[in-house]
Amino acid sequence: MGTVSRGFRGRRRPTVELPPGQYLVEDFPVLSAGPTPSIELEDWEFTITNETGTQQRWDWAAFRALSSEQVTVDIHCVTHWSKLGTTWEGVSLDTLLADAETSAGFALVSSYGGYSTNLPLEDLTDGKAWIAFRYDGEELEPEHGGPARLLVPHLYLWKSAKWVRGIQLLDSDEPGFWESLGYHNYGDPWREQRFWGD
Amino acid sequence: MTSSNLWTDGNGLAGPFHDVFCVEVSTAIGRCGNCGRTGPMAEVRVFDHAPGLVARCPTCDQVLLRLVRDRGRAWLDLRGLVYLQLAVPDQT
Prior knowledge:
CATH topology of chain A: Sulfite Oxidase, Chain A, domain 2
Distance between the termini of chain B: 49 Å
Largest interface: A-B, 21 and 22 residues
Strand content of chain B: 35-45%
Number of strands of chain B: 8
Oligomer: heterodimer
Helix content of chain B: under 10%
CATH superfamily of chain A: Oxidoreductase, molybdopterin-binding domain
Number of helices of chain B: 1
Low-confidence stretches of chain B: none
Strand content of chain A: 25-35%
Radius of gyration of chain A: 16 Å
Number of helices of chain A: 2
Distance between the termini of chain A: 43 Å
Shape of chain B: globular
Radius of gyration of chain B: 13 Å
Strand order of the largest sheet of chain B: 1-4-5-6-7
C-alpha cells in the first residue's frame, strides 16, 4: 500500500455557504445513468493515454502502491443537492500524470459501463482532482463508483466519473456523455453552469 | 438506494415523452441498434435518478435513448434505436 499524506482540505467556511440553486443534504444520494458494473479488482485497470497514443497503465496493486491523500471536500450535484465535508482517500492526478508526456489541453475521462465526461486538463492538476478509492473511511461502495472514481469537487459531480477506467489527453475538446446532450461543457457550480448557454 | 432500484420500467418514459412529442412512447415498439432486440418500450430500463433520463435495452444494456430537460427546452438522443414504431392517428 502507498503512503498516506494529508492533502487538500477544501475551503473552510465559518457558515454554510452553498452554490446558487443548491440545497443541503445529509445523506449521499445515488445517481446513475446505468447499471452498477461489477468490477473484480484483479481485472481492474486504469490508463492514461496521451495525444500521441502513448499509454500508461496501472493494475489495482500498482495503483494502490502509489502515495494517496485524504481530502475533505464539499460536493455539488447538478440535480441541486450539495453535501458538505465529505472525506475521501485517493491518488492525486498530479501523481498519476507526473510521467505523462503531453502538451494536451483537454481530458476525456471514460468509465466501466460506458460513461464519459470531459474537462480541461488544468482542472485535473495542481491538487484539484483525485482517483478516489475510499469514502468516509471505508472502501468505496460500487454504487458510489467503487472500486475507484474520479473526484473533481470544484465542478458539478457528473464530472467526477464513477467506475473510472481511463483518461485520454486530447489536443481538442470532446464532449462526454452529458456534455453532448445539453449539459454545460465546464460545469462550475459557483457560476451555476448547468446547461448549454448558462 | 440500492442498484436494484436505480431503474424503473419503460412506463417511466410516458410522461416526459408526451410532454415533448405528444406521443405515447411506452406502447411503441423499439429495435435496439446493438443487439436487435425488438419489443415494447414499456419493457426497457429507465434510469432517471441521473442528470437526465436514460433508457437502456433490457437485453444488452445499450443506451437506447437519452432525454435532458432544461427550462423550456429539451435534448433528445435516439441513436441507440434502429427505429420506434409509434401509434398515430390515420392520415385523412
